Amino acid sequence: MAAAAAGAPERVLPASPNWYCSRCSDASEDGSLFGFAARNSICLLVVRSGVPTFHGELVGHTERVSGFSFCHYPGQSNYCASSSDDGAVKIWDVQTLATVTEHTLHQNIISALHWSPQMKDLVVSGDEKGIVICYWHNRSNSQQFFPEPRTIFCLTCSPHHENLVAIGYKDGIVVIIDISRKGEVVHRLRGHDDEIHSLAWCPVLGEEGLSSWQEEGQDAINGCSLEEVATVTKSCYLASGSKDQTIRVWSYTRNRAVMTLKLPFLKRRGGSFESAVKERLWLTVHWPRSQPTQIFSSCFGGELLQSDLVQTGKRKWVLLGSSTEGQNHSRIVFNLCSLRSEGRELLLSISMDRDVKCWDLATLDCRWTMPSLGGFVYSLAFSPVDTGCLAIGVGDNMIRVWNTLSINNHYDVKTFWQGIKSKVTALSWHPTKEGCLAFGTDDGKVGIYDTYSNKPPQISSSYHKKTVYALAWGPPVPPLSLGGDGDRPSVTLYSCAGEGIVFQHNPWKLNGEAHDINKVIRGTNAIKHKLPAHTEISWKPDGSILAIGNEDGSMEIFQAPELKLLCTIQQHHKLINAIRWHHDHAAQPELSYMIASGSNNAVVYVHNIKNVIENPPERPVTITEPFRTLLGHTAKITSLSWSPHHDGRLVSVSYDGTAEVWDVLKEEPLHNYRGHRGRLLCVQWSPVEADCIYTGADDFCVHKWVPAKQEHSRPPQGKKSIELEKKRSLALKPKAKKKKKPLGKVPAVPDSECAVPTVNEDEDAVETPLEENGLLDQEAGKAQQEPEERPSTEGHKDSPTHPPLACAPDVQKPPVTFRILPVRKEHIKPGPDSSMKRKKPRSILPLSTSLDHRSKEELHQDCMRLATCLHSKAGQKEDLPSCSRDHVHLGLFTNRPTLYRLMEAEGRSHLENGHPELFQQLMIWKGELKGALQLAAERGELTDQLVALSPMAGYQAWMWTVEAFTKQLCFQEQYVKAASHLLSLHKVYEAVELLKTHSFFREAIAIAKARLHPEDPVLKDLYTSWAAILEKDGHYSLAAKCYLGAAAPYDAAKVLSKKGDLTSLKAAAELSLIAGEKELSVTFSFRCAQELLSAKNWVGAQEVLQQHESLLGQRLVFCLHELLHKCLSERNPVQNRSPSIPCYHSWVVNQDCSFIEIVTTVWQSIFGVHTAEQAQNMFEQLQNIQYPPATSNTPPQQLLFYVSHELTLALLSHQTASWKEAVKAILRAVTQSYDAGNFTLMHEICNIIVPGDCDHLREKLDSSDIQSLSAYRSLQAFVAYVQLYNLWWNFPGDSLILEHGTLTSEVCNNEQSTLGCQISCASTSSSTEGIHDTEARPEEFFHKKDDGTSSETDSSINLNLLKKRQALSSCGVLLSEQHAAVQSVRRDISRVQQSLATLIHQHQKNNLQQSTTDEQDLVETQLPLSSPSMNEVGEPISLPDLMKQLTEANQKLAEFPSSIKDLPFPDVLECCLVMLHVGAQRVVDLDPELREQCLHLLQKFRANDVYREACRKFFT
What is the strand order of the sheet 659-663 is part of? Predict the structure, then answer.
């Protein structure tokens, strides 16, 4: 995916570099590339002193990349190495972005990696257990060393000696090993007290160059001079940076530190130094090759320091970027590396603030900053005022505002984080106020930022319960719209969240209460049933119409400001994710009524609701047919965006990992972008650059790409989609769960490990699974299938959750303290074979029993002591207990106090041995029942037996015991048993709430139904809550039962229909009818009938429709459709694409009658439509139903249904003698076939409905009605159009060939001469092949007898020719000069618009190709006006000339009467060409007047594109 490759992004905001890695970024030896590890891949940038460009990504690791290094061996700069937590070390070629080789020799997490500068194929890596592996990739050889049993933090290979490797450990030790001597430790350097974060060798060999470091008396080592040692050992210095806030410079020969640099505490401008920052220190060091006496290092708060090592006296620190405020990083820096580019020495740094900065080492100033993203890109929004500002909502709790028009800095990004404590999931700019940006977050917060100030945002006091998914600015609705102009804002903010609620916020008073618009919807439309959960909102650009998408897949269209429901679009059957209105500045105004929608079912639907908006119905209508259907994506649609530069151009993004650009009007996929490595979440078409689109995904990236540069036109299918899914799954692979440790023995985790996130601290190291519109995305794992309906007794209690998308191996969760409760051991019930070995019950007084089984002498002594105590003198009996104090087992035979002492000893013994139940029995024997209960409750050891005995202690004690036992059962997750005990206390509501809280809905409902009043609202709440969970899980049938139990049949029917299959729709329709929801039942019945119709089951469709009297009109349509289909099947003009066998009714009809008579007879006999009044009622029912215009992509079966609808209206008008409406309906039916390009169907309709001609209709029309006469002329023209092509196509196969000079000399003068030859050749091939070869050949027609007289067939031939001549003469109605003029003007308008679009496109393309900032004036740009398809070169025409031509053409078009413009008419010039061609065959003589008229029209309104279109359609 190199930048130069086709389809690569123009610009990229990449994922943030990984944190807390000793080396996860590096620069190539030739200074061309800089790479850094970002999550589980490596991002490569082309480095310049000006602006960096995106080169590509190295993709292949399945977990976090922990190390990255280029090969610095001369001539090998295209190779690099990476290590990952997946245990792999990979070698890459950055030119091909492919893996060269890899190894997985490490058994533990790899923590350090470096490519040896001295050996071109040696890669050294170390892991957390102290294992060092040297890998020579050219010969696939490796060696393993274990120098120290410590955790390796960093390592670096010597640039001077190929065998020396320095290793830094977690405990502060630095070790230098020699890999040529089996990893022998050469030096062990001690001095640091904490983690070694970075190591850097001095780029200059030897130690004699820095003599100022040498201490007196240390010039000789072991009798050798320092110079001799340096010569022998190739010694040099080594620098180390540690968490102990020091940098130490070590001498290789002297094995000690020769310099220690303490980090200074730098005070930031305008603030004080925070002590907490010290704990977050990461000290990285870099020793640049060009400056061997300087060391660069990081500091506490993100500052970069330069230290001069040879300066004597006090060390002087130089702060980078001190010349201008704001140049430094704002948080700690992890890695530094340098390179030389364009004659400059550059230093590159990556930091926790997610910025990559480039510094000029000569000036110590920042050259450029590349921002990056630390979370999913949830939302993109371009400002309508400052059109170049792109707002980006990211999952790292921050908003970025990208000035995409900045010339000097292509990555001019501002970051906003104040007041945001959760992921930013929705954004929306104020339509008129500059810099006003609304945002919504994952925790339900809605706020407004002023991007031109540093003030914190305003936060709405009304919070959503779940994630905010959509924001939109729109006109106020009640109650905010009820105030005066000065008391209410012109626009208000609307937010939609996962709980399905839409709030209206007052931007003037965000601290006030937001209003739920459901209240307005209910009040305005008198809705009593439950409203569906809302998931998406979108205002029409003019603010007049609001579209709301719902969880059940429906879309509702409301009219502002009262939110009157105009229509419901029932197209999707899954949750709506995106709704977008077409822009309102299209060349065709009707396009502004188009609305695109995407849902979880991977299909984009576009509806044109112009008729509904311009003519609002009295009652809401339901739309079930789309205007356009865009098929291609293989996963859910997440976002849509219309192009503001084109008409009908849409881009969609999907979970399939691609973005698709569509030509909506043609239903064609144009360009497919596959540059992201994850699921795409948002998209925006640039409002400034017509050829640029911005997309965001869950790969933490924003891409800017050009559609025209993409090599694919549609989303991948089959194997490619599987490969993309694998590629996306590689993005983040969850780790296997470790074996759980015993509770109570959680080891303490050192602070250093707990504070080390692996990827992004602000993103909690992992990004949680996407939650779209309040529902967890469970479709990716289910292959886009509906879940099976399996009743669940516990709701969501045990539902699986998604594994985390990223893992943090270095992060351990803080210790959690658990209360360990002793569990009473249950005795195993004896089996049938255990009766012989039945164990004796455990003694409750084991201590006393054991002492009574001692030796005989000891027992005799006990008797003596007992007798002495019992028979002592009366005055000494009060000392009786004292005599048994040391022999408590004798208390059983003495007085009560001694017995109590015995029981206490026995009880302690039971507790020590883990038998608390026996201790409790002893306390009960003593009469201390309350104490036993209290102690058992405190220890969580209450049992059923204790609860049963508790009434002995009194009523209050019993109640207290039951409550304590209930809490204990809840802690033990025995909720059902706890609820039963609550019922014993008559706490029914508490028991029900307990079960409901823990998703035991079935049990809770059973209790509530049995114990509560039937009208209690708690019962209804239980039903609705359970139904919502079941509906989310896909258990629609059980959810419908719950809604029925809650007395909500409307919702039951809606949820039952969610699957959209035949049986579900039929059940939903019947349920609605039984419950009295007739309108809903009508909707479902009609949808069910349409499903049956698609299966060619007209019998089943009529059975469904006959349940509703209001659907009698539709029954007539289905009846006519069946008869028409049967008639066409008998004539066999339509190919049967479906393998299903048609299921027709066995209606008795007279086959000798016309089609109209057959239909009328069936209507009267079967459906009882006898009177004109009935026909009028049916006509009014069907007239309000509008279907979208047909296109070439309309399926034939759907087209036939549209035609049947119009023909039904025509026949109903025929019965009521409404001839005007009949003509219009027939015209619409014919036009539908004409627009769909189905000439055969149009021909059959004309033959069936108006056989011969339509003169009989003319006699019945009012001659004073201009509209009806215009409709008749259009219909007459289409009938003649069909006859004209019948004449042409039914000519004999070997008829006389058109002579080349005949047509070309008359028609094709000048520029048309070439085309005339094409027509001649085409006609030759056409006549030779023949379409219908059923008629006789010319030899048979013109065969003469030997005597020169005609044969006996002459009379029939002459009669046939006469009929054809009359038919050809009747086609003269097609030669309408007025219609030809209108069509010519419209062609001129289309050509000018195309030229304008091409001109703008060429101008933008030139601007993109220019490297300078000078822009050329658009007015001076010239472009040929003529169509590029013509074989001529037109004169250059400027933009003002084009605009002038467009204005003049529109004025001409406005001068024509609406009766000519509004009604369809066949192409006049096309008809002229065909008529001349037929006449040129010399079989049927063309009337000279018609010939002259054709030639006149062709010469007056000539247009090459018409000729070519005619040749393409009919001569090939």
Answer: 637-642, 649-654, 659-663, 668-673
